[in-house]
Design brief:
Four copies of one chain form a homotetramer.
Chain A (H helix, E strand, L loop, with lengths): L1 E8 L7 H8 L8 E8 L9 H17 L3 H7 L2 E5 L8 E8 L9 E11 L8 H18 L7 E9 L3 H9 L9 H20 L23 E6 L4 E10 L6 E8 L5 H10 L10 H5 L1 E8 L6 E2 L2 E2 L10 H17 L5 E4 L10 E8 L2
Parallel strand pairs in A: 2-3, 6-7, 10-13
Antiparallel strand pairs in A: 1-4, 2-4, 5-8, 6-8, 9-14, 10-14, 11-12
Helix pairs in contact in A: 2-3, 4-6, 7-9
Amino acid sequence: MRADVLRFGLPDPGDVSGLRSAIESGAVDPHSIAAVIGKTHGNGLVNDYTRGYLAQSLSQLISEKTGETPQAVRQRIPLIFSGGVEGVLSPHYTVFTIGEDPSPPNGKALAIGVGFTPDLNPEDIGRRRQIDLTAAAVQDAMNEAAIDEAADVHFVQVKGPAFALADIIASERRGAAPVTDNPGKLVGCGRAASALGVGKALGEIASDRAVERAALKDFGAYSAVASCSAGVEVRANEIMVLGMSDKWSGPLIATHAAMADALDIGAIHGAIRSLDFSSNGQLSAEQARRLRVGFVKCEASRDGLVRGKPHAMLNDGDIDQQRHIRAAVGAIVASVVNDTALFVSGGAEHQGPYGGGMIALIAERG
Amino acid sequence: MRADVLRFGLPDPGDVSGLRSAIESGAVDPHSIAAVIGKTHGNGLVNDYTRGYLAQSLSQLISEKTGETPQAVRQRIPLIFSGGVEGVLSPHYTVFTIGEDPSPPNGKALAIGVGFTPDLNPEDIGRRRQIDLTAAAVQDAMNEAAIDEAADVHFVQVKGPAFALADIIASERRGAAPVTDNPGKLVGCGRAASALGVGKALGEIASDRAVERAALKDFGAYSAVASCSAGVEVRANEIMVLGMSDKWSGPLIATHAAMADALDIGAIHGAIRSLDFSSNGQLSAEQARRLRVGFVKCEASRDGLVRGKPHAMLNDGDIDQQRHIRAAVGAIVASVVNDTALFVSGGAEHQGPYGGGMIALIAERG
Amino acid sequence: MRADVLRFGLPDPGDVSGLRSAIESGAVDPHSIAAVIGKTHGNGLVNDYTRGYLAQSLSQLISEKTGETPQAVRQRIPLIFSGGVEGVLSPHYTVFTIGEDPSPPNGKALAIGVGFTPDLNPEDIGRRRQIDLTAAAVQDAMNEAAIDEAADVHFVQVKGPAFALADIIASERRGAAPVTDNPGKLVGCGRAASALGVGKALGEIASDRAVERAALKDFGAYSAVASCSAGVEVRANEIMVLGMSDKWSGPLIATHAAMADALDIGAIHGAIRSLDFSSNGQLSAEQARRLRVGFVKCEASRDGLVRGKPHAMLNDGDIDQQRHIRAAVGAIVASVVNDTALFVSGGAEHQGPYGGGMIALIAERG
Amino acid sequence: MRADVLRFGLPDPGDVSGLRSAIESGAVDPHSIAAVIGKTHGNGLVNDYTRGYLAQSLSQLISEKTGETPQAVRQRIPLIFSGGVEGVLSPHYTVFTIGEDPSPPNGKALAIGVGFTPDLNPEDIGRRRQIDLTAAAVQDAMNEAAIDEAADVHFVQVKGPAFALADIIASERRGAAPVTDNPGKLVGCGRAASALGVGKALGEIASDRAVERAALKDFGAYSAVASCSAGVEVRANEIMVLGMSDKWSGPLIATHAAMADALDIGAIHGAIRSLDFSSNGQLSAEQARRLRVGFVKCEASRDGLVRGKPHAMLNDGDIDQQRHIRAAVGAIVASVVNDTALFVSGGAEHQGPYGGGMIALIAERG
């Protein structure tokens, strides 16, 4: 098997002409699409409908090309979108395909696996059920990807459900109260539980720490490869695992690094060096073309400090903290990798070190 | 003469206890204060009252300590504040003092000069009067600083007036219509005219290009050392010039660099190298202590692209473009200089290259 | 012919289950749908993608049920959505159908006509071409609706194109510069020109005042029935005319009133009285059920005053003025008509008196 | 004694020229000022510094005129400001004075009393200590005002402390964790506890329900006269009680009404009728001049519905729910009383019925 990764610009969540052209030109076989991950124009919060819009646009395009129903497309292919292209970031989506490769494997190459939990209700979010179902689905995805060791996993994207107020109230009324009645806060609980599930599956977090009471409390428990987000447009945790496997072939390799804090530019330099880039501050335009996709998780540090100086992100009533930190950390990464079409997601609860986050990159072999 | 530069954290625009303690301990002679420049908690737009609040707090503190009236303090000392500490940025203010130095000058050292235009009306903003009065005031400030050559000027901060809608309408009613009736847009016109004035004074822009019709049109005309902002709390262009002069002594040196675009991390590395820092990506915490203050100007590129990829800043109805770009470029600079208490200001019309901006740094000699 | 008007709640722009159920139960014949107008969850500004999302959702639903392509649905049926449900307002969409009526007309009844201009380019917006094409399309729609006299027209909705920065720049590059390079401001120019076109078609504005140079200048020229908005999801001016005609039958009647300013609650009371409601401040819940749909246009007064006291809407860098005024005027109307699912749209340039706007209501005969 | 109430427009939080002129003309004796309540330009959330700015401006003005220190002014006079003039609302401040009256009392007239709790720490907010200290301070203020019966109290304003993240973390570190580490949520807890304290003092809430565990839970427990807000600029609960007392004289009278929900325009009409206004929808300009001040509390209903239809306020990541609801309910009240300089405050936890709020008005006798 051989994985490929293609990135397309997104002029508007209703405009998927990039993938359409690629399918129509034969560059992408729509049956080979295993997952799509992207960054849309919205605010990345509960009332962000650009994620659902792009999912609708893509599921219809793929449906039109494969003959599946749009519903079947959505059940087969994780369509994982995060809103918020603050600062220099550029809206885009990345298509992951899995094809046959006649040439035999030659060492390890990029491997992809996907998984889904059963549907989750508002009362499951942030709770044991979400943790454990996520862990199981990650294990399934690793098996599918034929990744033998957790150390070969470089990125696990989880997109779980968010619920608007009406759903939360409906749950309360049937006697199944969610952990909070605040829609925005419930999203954070969901990211936390999902990350604990990833860490549990990969052995990064011991089973007795990957538990409900650790969520948003025991921040020493984290996964360095998890990237979790949520949106009202999905109902199950949708999971994509990226790693290296000797059962796969092709030119693509993956790497990742934990980011200790928002200014940890050293981690970014380390990640690109591990992909055999030589860099003196910023990849050249030519080098940057070797990069296929970059994933970043980040958060506004909960102690209100960055390197000992106060930030204002958590006191802000005008701009959500996630929008602040995506703009900041996204720009730092973009300035090093010389590319603004990055998947940068806020809310890094248990996803990388407390106050920091993680970065994962896929590139062609140098 | 000897210039000194002290930076204080700002917990709240009403809390100037940092400077108060420094005065009361004898570390700062309040009579020696020549200018204060800072970054406050507000949105940095027309309805940002944190700048005026801090100006009120500081003018009262200094008044209390020198015996001047608060009004006299404001007329003597430029109090130049810019709102907006997006992302990792940290609210702070920097006090510039000028004292006697018994030791003779030994080569060039940091020199400071200040200047004021007469009061400006709404109808002056963006127009020839603002350009020419600014140029004259910059020349006065250079003379005061005993900076002989324009090449020795590394930073010119201009804070000019902004006007809320009521002022604009009052001007229209007395037959003196401003260049636009949009308060936010008028601010941009004022930054443009101020920058053209700086560039004219320093010979960076030829006199026949430093004219009213060039404002917001001829973006090839720019100053690489100008940083212009505006606020409703001032009525004249208040100007501070920083440069190097052999009439001054002391350990401080200044540098600057034009930034070609928002991702021009090379310019930042260049600026710190010119201060004799060796850096492999980020100053160490120890190195960073040698840095006294950093000034950055930046803007969302008007062609909607960063390195060829679309950004979303200029289409955004929720977050002003200036808040986006400050978060982004501020973070990039912070990640290199390992310091978040930076004066980062958006709206770089004619202040550095089109789509880019500038950076100026003051440090102790290495 | 007989017009019907059905309103559906909108849980999410991707959820058109209300209309789906109505079609599947036989309550709505999808072939009879003449227009859909609705209010979506977004910010109502340039980067509001909820309008396009709902248009995609509805065009696909109708396509699925009629066998037309989605593109054909969009060319046949104006799908006119305005973003922004601030304050108490509730997201919804209203379906207008035209059916046969075996019973003969008996006096005047609600009549509906639709029209489209050719596609408009960025450089057409705010200009003579947009004014004149709109006027012609309004006339076509009146003819289609068999409304003989302009006095029988109670509401003309125009939805025209908005353009993001990339489109504006592309126009400039091919030598066809739009009237402004600011995407948000261009939207206002488009509303203004569209309203002038409506007023010209209906004789509310003399031909020599319904001209390009009047746009955003001569605010004495206005239409009391025009409601104009714009979005990136359309490329032509799409027009729906509602009025009374003796060629139509059915129980529905329409009315409208100009609102002199944001607090003109008297105009609202007048409009409901003209529908034979007796009211002492607020319609009862039973009375409110007779109301089928309400349309409101409003604006933040450009002189910065409401009844002589300053408002802060036009100085605000955090919340767009349209969001402020929709929240305010929408609530006032809702408090009188006892209904929050109202189509309230900001930006009332030449749509009702300067600083005010208009209200139109459709109800069952009392 | 005789109470007077004077309202001044606020062009800018640094511009208190209205009161300055009134003092300098002899219209206001600065020693007679008992409280100032106002509505400023900020967002009304944690990072709103316009409240502190106005408090600083006023305390300096009064200090200058009375010879007290600014600190003494603040300890003597509650300076209670709420940010957020959304929609049609107008920034202003209202000065309450207490003077001697040679004429004997003749029936009941407006009476004013003020009170302060001791300073509160972050860990006190939302807890029993805040409830009980508030109740005691309300009782003190009633005694001072010589209001004998709770039924004669028409308005109790409480302004308590808000804490930014740094304060919350400092409390946690010294082992005194606040009820939440979210600065915005802590504000809501403080309003809730303060309102429970008011209701307890006035007998509106039984002692066994005015307890910590009722806060933000038992919403059936409410005060119909409490209006509670919080800001970083105060450290104690500052309290002003307004009511009617036969120990006072003068022309002013007060009234109040509970608002059942955001559309309860009937309550507003009821309140103005109780002040002997005849109204058919809106006070005339002449009638409105009789009104001295209006106070409104409101909230976005927590069940997500207004009159059975969904609102979007609690899902919104761009505009805080308080800004939405102030714009909406403020406009409804303004449209009835024909005045936009109203004190409208969001966050009505236990202040009026669940999902509603309250209105209090002071007017000259009709």
